[in-house]
Specification:
mainly alpha
């Protein structure tokens, strides 16, 4: 009986230490304070003056569209061309994780996982919501048209642009390739901030840059 009590106390103490370590690391992480401070400020401003917050959000949105909209459109197209060249060229036969690496799951299972996550989580909702959104609010790349049919075509074109080959090349291909290479071949932790490793190098492990 005493051994069971001792084991229970040891497990409880271990869980307490683990919990304290987790919260300590969380509060020491600058990303927690940056993101938490922004969210808290956003909520407080919404409570204090909802109209002011709406004006600030709309102005920020239109400013980002005006200055960064064309850049993002060109960047998407460029990433698609890079992904296409990687797939067609000699790099298409490269095995990530080493020459002797064996996939943990087959192609059939992998396709169904993608379909149930990316397409199921995003496509099912946005397949309807995004064309309607672009129909009501004309995308910056198009001018307003009094022709309802043309306006619908523009809305669908913008939606296909977001959910077609460009989206898969950006999220499903090039980003995944970089993550897999840095994690399996270079041994870096499987975290989103390692995507910045080619730019910042080991500095991404600094808590103020990599969070």
């Amino acid at each position: 009986m005493s051994n069971l009590t001792t084991n229970a106390q040891v497990l409880k103490e271990a869980e307490t230490v683990k919990s304290n370590t987790f919260y300590q690391k969380m509060f020491e992480n600058p990303a927690f304070w940056f993101s938490g401070g922004f969210i808290l400020s956003f909520v407080l401003l919404a409570i204090y003056d909802n109209k002011l917050l709406s004006i600030l959000v709309n102005k920020s949105f239109f400013w980002s569209i005006k200055f960064f909209g064309p850049y993002w459109q060109i960047l998407l197209l460029l990433i698609f061309l890079i992904s296409l060249s990687l797939a067609i060229g000699k790099t298409g036969n490269v095995i990530l994780g080493g020459r002797d690496s064996v996939p943990e799951m087959g192609t059939f299972r992998w396709i169904f996982i993608i379909g149930a996550t990316l397409l199921g989580g995003g496509g099912v909702f946005w397949a309807v919501a995004e064309p309607i959104s672009h129909y009501i609010s004309v995308p910056p790349i198009y001018d307003y048209s009094s022709n309802i049919q043309q306006q619908a075509v523009n809305a669908l074109s913008q939606s296909f642009f977001h959910w077609g080959f460009l989206a898969w090349s950006t999220i499903g291909s090039l980003t995944a390739i970089v993550l897999m290479y840095l994690h399996y071949d270079r041994g870096l932790p499987l975290k989103p901030h390692i995507l910045l490793y080619p730019i910042f190098g080991d500095r991404i492990f600094n808590k103020y840059i990599g969070g």
